[in-house]
Amino acid sequence: MSENILVIGGGPAGLNAAVMLSELGVNVTLVERDSFLGGNPKKFKYKFLFPDMQPADNVIGELIKKTESADNIKVYYSSEVSDFKENGKKFDAVIKSTSGSETKTFDSVIVATGFEHFDPARDAKYSYQLFDDVIDIKDLERMMGENNFVRPSNGKPPKKVAFILCVGSRDRHVGNQYCSRVCCTVSVKQAIEMREHFPDCEAYIFYMDIRTYGFFEDLYWKAMEEHDVQIVKGRIAEITSGPDNTVVCKGEDTLLRGPFEIPFDMVVLASGMEGGSQSPEISSKLGIELDEHGFLKPENVTLSPFKSNKPGVFLAGACTGPKAISDSITEGAAAAMNAYTYAVKNR
Amino acid sequence: MAIENHNTGNSGGVRPVVEKGEHIIARHLIEDDNIKEEKNLVIDGVDVSGRWNTFIISRVDSDFDRSFFEEIKKTVVGSRINRCWQCGMCTASCTVTPLYRRFNPRAFIYMMQLGNLKELKKYIDVAWRCVGCYKCSQRCPKQVNPAEMMEALALVIKKYFPEEVKTKLKLDEEVKKIYEDMIIGHGRLDLAKLHTSAMQKSGKTKELLGKIERDAIFKMAKDGRAFSILRLGKPHNWSRSKEAIENYLHKLNTIENGEAGV
After folding, report:
1. Does the pLDDT value for residue A321 go beyond 70?
2. SS3 state of residue A83
3. What's the CA gap between B52 and B2, in Å, rounded?
4. Which domains does chain A have, with CATH numbers?
5. pLDDT in tens, B135-168
6. B121 interface with A at CB cutoff 8 Å
């Protein structure tokens, strides 16, 4: 008799966990809230991934293909876990989908519900949704993916673009004190892509710190040294409209101690990551802890970052905090190993 | 908006402007350069002479000028300007900054990157103070070569602010002569000679043989360094280089004199 394991969430972490478990011969049930697999990378049509600019399809597409071709993975699309009960060492879960509700018993559970992009409209100073030419990194990623890099206001290619880092991150004003880890690298990556395809377009990055950690630093160096991306130190306090259909970034250049109001053709906000509405929901449904940042809380952040406080329920990917895709995939595998061990022990 | 300037003709009855921006209440908060005032001014046919023609130029930077960055990047000395990420290692290691706080290589490079000539202009008097010790270039984590960037800065300032350079920079002809003779004559700097010349020039001949100096001379004589200074040689084939430099200087003088109408 093979084990039954429930994976909640079909993003990079959930997919990799499902694939790993299916290779171990486990019957996997994958619950996905959207009508497609792939999570945020698929939803927002990420095109190239840092650090090596490989097509996102090579990674996400590969995982989806493996999941769909596995006989022992049952995927429920547009579905959710509507009820969840402990049954001894096992768990009874009701899976609600368009085709009705189904109750199943699982040996262990992997939660990989992921993150949500911070909505910059929540922070009025950036005038997102007020001006067409103020977009954020997920919008730009989609534009690049659709080969449609133009100013939304007039359909013409921009000549001067500003990237603003730490939008919705490291800002008590919006309630997010943490660093979202990947937005610096994503912005630098996008600036490089932009300069590669549109060399006439100047790129400026407004930053407080540039946190391209580890080897992602190479991208940051490359952006400056090979693509003349200019970094300017200072956070932007206000975006207003300017003459000739421009958007004006108002800020302080903290290195020169001088105020500036610079007009740009387009502004890209590096919006951060949030636990989203799904994190508290899943936390109350499964009875696992939520942390003060709105993400799910691991039992021990260093020793067992993939375990929740409830034995048998494991965590993977960005549901425990901002994370790069590679880290999510690693955690998917780690959670799969732990969920399998738990299931075998309590057979 | 049509602005007519009547500075040349004096239409009677207008109160002459006594001091720049005298009507501004918090006058001490405004820099002189930021006040724009015309003696007589007509805007759209309305005479706004007197207290209504005082304008305060905003302190806010209103644009980045990238053409300037491109210009510097094309020079040999400034080719690595795109690398600088403003860590401040150059200023931290600078020999000059502790003496002149306003000499800040990091800030100068930043101003050049953003094409902020308005800001650069404030530093014309100190921007030339680099002594070329190259400590910054040795320590720079991105190999920007800030020491040579200061040469790029000098070129830029000379090009964009020729008038200010003439009025604000007082070149000490005597020091220049000592320096030039040394370079042309020997092909290298003789620091001991430069030191004695400077002391003599400032009238400190007595101190030249003070206790510290005497001790130094004794020490250097003992370990042989004093003799190597005396034997200071010239670089290989120096006579040809010397000729080239002299030719260049001669040509430069001719051009400058020609421009000045001498």
Report:
1. yes
2. strand
3. 16
4. 4-115+275-345 (3.50.50.60), 118-272 (3.50.50.60)
5. 999 999 999 999 999 999 998 898 999 998 888 7
6. no
Residues of A in contact with B61 (CB under 8 A): 253, 258-262
Task: Check if the beta carbon of residue B207 is closer than 8 Å to that of residue B213.
Answer: yes
Cis peptide bond N-terminal to A305, omega within 30: no
Q: Do B116 and A256 touch (CB under 8 A)?
A: yes
Place of tokens 């950690």: A213
Instruction: Give me the domains of chain B, ranges plus CATH numbers.
Output: 3-56 (no CATH), 66-168 (1.10.1060.10), 171-210 (no CATH)
**Nearest of A160, A258, A165, A157 to residue B62 by alpha carbon:** A258
pLDDT (tens digit per residue) in B29-56: 888 888 888 777 888 888 877 777 888 8
Residue A229 has pLDDT above 50, yes or no: yes
Phi, psi of B261 (to 5 degrees): 80, 25
Chain B residue closest to A201 (CA)?
Answer: B66
Which residues of chain A are within 8 Å of residue B63 when distances are taken between CB atoms?
Answer: 262-263
**Burial status of residue B250 (CB atoms within 10 A of its CB: 0-12, 13-18, 19 or more):** exposed
What is the rounded radius of gyration, in angstroms, for the C-alpha atoms of chain A?
22
B14 has pLDDT over 60: no
Give the Cα separation of A22 and A17 in Å (integer): 9
